[in-house]
Write a structure and sequence with these properties.
Elements lengths: L3 H14 L5 E6 L13 H8 L4 E7 L2 E6 L4 E5 L5 E4 L23 E7 L6 E5 L6 E5 L19 H5 L2 H9 L5 H6 L9 H11 L12 H20 L35 E5 L2 E5 L11 H5 L1 E6 L8 E6 L18 H25 L8 H17 L3 H6 L5 H7 L6 H19 L1
Antiparallel strand pairs: 1-6, 2-3, 3-4, 4-8, 5-7, 6-7, 9-10, 9-11, 11-12
Helix pairs in contact: 1-7, 4-7, 6-7
């Protein structure tokens, strides 16, 4: 997933090729996920942008937006696999796009395509084959974008906003969650994803499962330094991994499960993988020690992926503890899901649960009103009980007889020998009577 550095890369290219130009052509393809799930449509997107001038490009964590000459302004989130392509310009990060073919434009999986009026014209396309990306239109003044949803529900950007040491310490002490889970929660801090979170925790020598409010003062101060260092470096280098420091975990973590990859840092430190909050985390156990209560100690399961076996998926070792039963961890969509999307989904689920409950209440048989057949049977049984002088309490306590119980209660049919013997006795009695 594109994180703070990758989004900064695209904002750089937008300033280079789009800002200051007028959009002459705007084409969009309807997508119920990318547009529809956030209340936008392809037609509305085309209408809002065509003929307008792009006067700026901004970023907050994993979100970025274009500042138009007049509202509304388009706001973008790449999700898991979204990206912004520019014709005749390589925007890919980590490694060049080998399958790129600018002769076929718009590219595959495009959601919208733009073309500038100025010469030489600049052609752009937003692509997403997994359809987790989100494209919104925010109708407000440009300077008010961050005061509107979903940006206002997201935390500060470490680079754009300059998070202070005091602010981070207060945030860590106010939460009782695994420190990596806190970092990944976009409501706390914007822009930190899986690899950035692992990198800064490794740099700070902190175990990702340790609860945030159990960190020492020196650990929290170091975490702030590491966060600012990793995030600033990723943004300044525009996520070009070839330029990342060789000592970074990022440069050596991607060979997971391969036999020819020793999964070690240049200094020989071994890389291990474990699951924190449903996400795979890369750690260096020799330096990232547990100095306080960690999530695995409470949840009852400490899952570690062993990379020595050569299996592509890795061998998962689970160590059960006697403190509590293991809890199921869900993989939080977002990273890929925004705070505003989560609120909308919760409202929708609430309505569905209410509708299901009403339907169940309508169809559920009432205990005080049994079916007619049972009513008649109960009335007959009650009459017999009253005639025999027995209590109606016993009747209610009598268990319902199953078919097997009824068959068992029936007398067995006489076999052949029993029938013949009974016939002989009757004949003898008749003979005696005649005599």
């Amino acid at each position: 997933m594109p994180e703070i550095g990758e989004v900064a890369r695209i904002v750089h290219y937008l300033h280079k090729h789009l800002v200051g130009r007028t959009l002459a052509v705007v084409r969009a393809q309807e997508d119920a996920n990318v547009f529809g799930k956030v209340g936008t449509s392809a037609a509305e997107f085309e209408k809002a942008l065509k003929g307008k001038k792009v006067v700026g490009a901004r970023q907050q964590g994993k979100y970025f937006w274009l500042v138009m000459s007049s509202p509304p302004h388009p706001l973008f989130h790449f999700g898991m696999a979204g990206w912004w392509k520019i014709r005749n310009e390589e925007t890919a990060y980590y490694k060049p796009d080998k399958k790129r073919d600018d002769g076929d434009w718009p590219p595959k999986y495009w959601k919208f395509a733009l073309e500038t009026a100025e010469k030489p014209k600049s052609e752009h396309a937003f692509v997403d084959f997994r359809r987790f990306a989100r494209i919104r239109l925010v109708d407000c003044a440009a300077e008010e974008m961050r005061n509107n949803s979903p940006l206002k529900e997201n935390g500060p950007d470490p680079v754009q906003d300059g998070i202070t040491e005091e602010w981070l310490i207060q945030k860590l002490q106010s939460k009782h969650v695994p420190v990596k889970a806190l970092l990944l929660d976009q409501a706390n801090i914007s822009g930190i994803g899986n690899w950035v979170g692992d990198e800064l925790l490794y740099d700070a020598r902190i175990h990702p499962e340790q609860y945030s409010n159990t960190l020492t003062s020196s650990q929290m101060k170091q975490l702030h330094k590491s966060m600012m260092y990793v995030c600033t470096t990723a943004v300044e280098l525009r996520a070009e991994s070839d330029k990342f420091p060789e000592t970074w975990l990022f440069k050596h973590r991607w060979g997971k499960g391969k036999k020819d990859d020793p999964q070690k840092l240049p200094n020989g430190e071994k890389i291990k993988f474990l699951t924190v909050g449903g996400r795979t985390s890369a750690i260096i156990p020799s330096v990232q020690k547990k100095t306080g209560t960690v999530a695995a100690d409470v949840d009852g399961t400490d899952s570690v992926v062993d990379e020595d076996n050569g299996d592509d998926e890795g061998k998962i070792k689970k160590r059960k503890r006697s403190t509590k039963k293991a809890k199921k961890e869900s993989d939080e969509e977002d990273d890929e899901t925004t705070v505003a999307d989560v609120k909308d989904n919760r409202k929708l689920k609430g309505k569905k649960r209410g509708a299901v409950k009403e339907e169940q209440d309508d169809t559920k048989p009432q205990v005080d009103d049994p079916p007619p057949a049972k009513k008649q049977a109960k009335g007959k049984a009650k009459g017999k009980a009253e005639a025999n002088g027995t209590s109606d309490v016993a009747e209610d306590m009598e268990p319902t007889k199953t078919p097997r119980m009824r068959r068992a209660a029936q007398p067995e049919a006489p076999n052949k020998k029993q029938t013949e013997a009974s016939g002989r006795r009757r004949s003898a009695r008749v003979s005696n009577a005649v005599k």
